[in-house]
Specification:
This protein is an alpha+beta fold. It contains 22 helices and 29 strands. The strands form 7 sheets. The chain has a 6-stranded antiparallel sheet. Strands 1-2-3-9-8 form a 5-stranded mixed beta barrel. Helix 13 packs antiparallel against helix 14. It is globular. The protein binds a DNA duplex through strand 1, helix 2, helix 3, strand 11 and strand 15.
DNA sequence: ATCTATCGGGG
DNA sequence: GTGTACGATAGAT
């Protein structure tokens, strides 16, 4: 009855049955049947690192004597591996129950002669994919034995794994998403108190859309009763059986809310492919659903550097998925009103439909990249998108370590000490015409490869080594006798990426083959570029402060030398930051600089962009420029956040629009002055002055007197209920004392009480200057009356 | 200058 | 589930 099965791995989990762990591999076969493969043979293990001169026989006896019956130690084996690049003596300890590893880690590491317990902090299901070299989203082949279908799994077929799992070489370049069923969903909740409370405020709408059906499904509550739509939602997921469930910020809102509501009705949110399993909060604040990938698209949006406000409507607008002016927009605090007003209810329904359509549209943009991140890093797609770049790289490093029989260091918490960073030149303030920006290609990874940087090659006093690379300034030395672990990984990435780029040339730009490879090379680049930051990340297993310090020192040296060379041949340098230099756009001299850097320094540098005009203030890392195609580039711009007044947010978005559309900062100044006048004349409605801030703990627990805590205390005094999680809306009123003491709940205040100076100085002006300072505009220019001749006319292109 | 609290996305 | 982010900023002290 044995046969070979080709399957695509989607997710991995495990369960304990009869006191033994069973690995569950969730996937689909070539006929798109949903399959569950089980492996009953895998057991948890970890290593004990021994002192060099320890008596391993004695230690082995000690280990066995500490075996517990509820999860016995079933094997111990002395192994010769390496640790941080040096030979290491270790004992591999295998037990039965994954949860017991934590306990054994403690009890066994106290044995004399045992230096440390290693690899005891790796999640069991991840350990499986690590050891079997499995990458979610890839296709595999394996010998299997069909199992009689169990009733407690919602899959088409179940198999028991019987043999080695190998990659299906014929399906390396197929689109991993082809044929997978995707479900987008979004909930709207009733929020009469503005901050919705899941213990009393119902879910009023659930909108759902699948990738294989054009119709949008809208589940509507009966008045204020949402029990029926929750049931319908669960039934729908089970009936349609999506492989991927997507939402926008559903990990922080929709799932927790749905879970609270269903608890209230004692409904089991049984939406996974394992019967009776509910969405489970897991690593990175992510919810895992058995057998399905729950992907939060907000995680992708976070990585968009080009836009600052990452709300669903903004992101969908920016990416051309759904223009803002072609959809219904409703302020969040008005949702309850729209629901209660039967005439407005249809507008709210359309709003919900627009949201879910945007969400599915974004999935088409983002998931191809997410799938490749899984293919490269080895983390399931729902986890990899939620993880930080350093964590993604680490997942891959762990696989590489496993292949090399290198013991993995533990994840520990460190207080990281800061070190000198990159060179950032003081920009030459003012307007400069025709400026070219030269960029080093992957500067930090290149430094790591060239100088063989890594924790394993870092030399300590007295270490023997023939060829040494010494970093300038900091003087850390790295041995070049053998390749560093990090270098091997990076070189593999570089080679892989250049092969992909070569293969891409065989296809038409925009074709599905081309796009797939393009997403893959992007995923590799993301991991490679995380390498420097990884070494300086406090939680990194291969943390190496000296490495990070040396890398930036080499980087500073590199850029200073380049700048000096440019100056020596008479090329004007305006500014430099980390891995880029801004120079006069003199083609001939730039070519000389590029040649010199390539030949003498042996690094790659290229022209990244050319500004027709660029404007610098004294501030580093913040400038505005006019590109050759007429676009305005504002670099380093920080948007005001949600804890600013509506007025401040409105001022900023209007200024951004004025500048990007008219290209004239003078118009923006007039606008700001007009707003200030309006405020002084009481023409701004109070609603726009409210500042919303969340209480993160109970009011008594606040030690510091913050404005929102002060306002919350006042609310409590007047009989309102405030708890952790409440959003407090306050305004600042006239008077003396600290700002906190002048904070009042917005509904207890008249417009005439408002401290207009606070709003001018702390809200309108700072918010406006976040953009206008790039154009040389100062606070003085914005105060009514002052007439400053314009430094900033430079964008009035003639 | 240092410490404490909060934001983000969602509704 | 062998486990829980991060970098920036305002206001108080």
């Amino acid at each position: 009855m044995e046969s070979t099965l080709n399957f695509q791995l989607l997710d991995v989990s495990y369960e304990i049955v009869n006191n033994t762990p069973i690995i569950n591999l969730w996937g689909r076969d070539l006929n798109n049947k949903k399959v569950l493969l089980i492996d009953t043979t895998f057991r948890p293990y970890f290593y004990l690192l021994l002192d060099k001169d320890s008596n391993s026989e004695k230690i082995k006896q000690e280990i066995l004597s500490r075996s517990k019956t509820k999860s016995p130690i079933i094997n111990i084996e002395e192994v010769n591996m390496s640790y941080i690049g040096r030979p290491a003596k270790a004992i591999k300890v295998t037990t039965t129950i994954p949860e017991s590893v934590r306990e054994y880690r403690e009890t066994l590491s106290s044995i004399e002669g045992v230096k440390d317990a290693l690899e005891a902090d790796i999640r069991f299901s991840f350990r499986y994919t690590l050891d079997k070299n499995l990458y979610p989203m890839r296709w595999y082949k394996v010998n299997v034995k069909p199992l009689e279908k169990k009733t407690n799994y919602r899959v088409d077929e179940m198999y028991e794994i019987n043999g080695e799992i190998t990659e299906d070489e014929n399906r390396v370049n197929v689109n991993p998403l082809d044929g997978l069923k995707i479900m987008a969903f979004d909930i709207e909740v009733y929020n009469p108190q503005r901050t919705p409370d899941p213990s009393k405020d119902p879910i009023i709408l659930i909108s759902i859309k699948f990738n294989d059906n054009n119709d949008t499904i809208l589940l509507e509550a009966k008045g204020h009763d949402d029990s029926e739509i929750i049931h319908k939602f669960i039934e729908l997921i089970r009936k349609e059986d999506p492989d991927i469930i997507i939402g926008y910020n559903q990990n922080k809102f929709d799932w927790p809310y749905l879970i609270e509501r269903s608890k209230l009705y004692k409904i089991k949110l049984d939406v996974g492919r394992k019967v009776d399993s509910v969405p489970n909060p897991s690593v990175f604040g992510h919810y895992s659903i058995q057998g399905r990938l729950n992907v939060d698209l907000y995680d992708f949006a976070e990585e968009l550097q080009e836009i600052k406000v990452k709300s669903l409507d903004e992101v969908a607008d920016y990416l051309g998925v759904k223009p803002k002016d072609k959809r219904v927009n409703i302020d969040w605090w008005l949702i309850a009103q729209y629901w209660d007003d039967i005439e407005k209810r249809n507008t709210l329904k359309q709003y919900s439909i627009d949201d879910v359509e945007s969400t599915l549209g974004l999935a088409y943009k983002f998931l191809p990249f997410g799938a490749q991140l899984s293919i490269i890093s080895g983390l399931p797609m729902d986890q990899v998108v939620a993880a930080s770049v350093a964590f993604r790289l680490e997942a891959r490093l762990m696989r590489e370590a496993k292949k090399k029989s290198e013991l993995m260091p533990n994840r520990i918490e460190r207080n990281i000490e800061s070190y000198t960073g990159a060179v950032v030149l003081k920009p030459e303030p003012g307007i400069h015409e025709n400026v070219a920006v030269l960029d080093f290609a992957s500067m930090y990874p290149s430094i790591m490869v060239k100088y063989n940087v890594g924790p394993d090659t870092l030399l300590k006093d007295g270490d023997a080594c023939k060829v040494r690379n010494k970093a300038p300034e900091v003087n850390h030395e790295f041995c070049a006798d053998n390749p560093a672990f990090m270098r091997l990984v990076l070189e593999r990435f570089l080679k892989w990426r250049s092969e992909i780029k070569k293969a891409m040339k065989l296809y038409k730009e925009g074709s599905s083959e081309y796009n797939l490879l393009n997403e893959r090379q992007k995923a590799i680049k993301v991991l490679a570029n995380a390498s420097y930051g990884y070494l300086g990340w406090g939680a990194a297993r291969w943390y190496c402060r000296s490495c990070a310090e040396a890398i930036t020192a080499w980087g500073r040296d590199l850029i200073s030398q380049s700048i000096n060379f440019a100056k020596s041949i008479g090329l004007k340098v305006y500014y430099g930051d980390t891995d880029s230099i801004f120079v006069d756009n003199n083609k001939e001299k730039i070519e000389q600089v590029i040649n010199w850097i390539t030949k003498v320094l042996e690094f790659d540098i290229k022209i990244d962009k050319i500004y027709k005009r660029v404007f610098f203030t004294e501030a580093k890392k913040r400038y505005a420029g006019l590109l050759e195609d007429g676009k305005i580039d504002i670099v380093g711009f920080e948007a005001v956040r949600g804890d600013w007044s509506e007025l401040a947010k409105e001022v900023q978005s209007n200024i951004a629009e004025l500048i990007l559309k008219t290209g004239n900062p003078k118009k923006a100044i007039e606008y700001v002055k007009a707003v200030i006048e309006d405020l002084k004349n009481g023409k701004i409605v109070l609603d726009k002055l409210i500042i919303w801030k969340t209480l993160t703990k109970e009011i008594e627990q606040y030690e510091a007197e913050t404005p929102h805590a002060y306002a919350a205390k006042l609310m409590e005094k007047y009989g309102y209920k405030v708890t952790a999680g409440s959003k407090i809306g306050f305004v600042i009123i006239k008077g003396s004392g600290s700002i906190s003491k002048k904070a009042r709940p917005y509904f207890m205040v008249k417009e005439s009480d408002i401290d207009t100076n606070y709003y001018i100085d702390k809200q309108i002006i700072p918010s406006a200057l976040r953009i206008l300072s790039y154009f040389g505009i100062t606070e003085k220019d914005l105060k009514v009356g002052s007439k400053q001749p314009s430094l900033f006319d430079f964008l009035d292109s003639s």
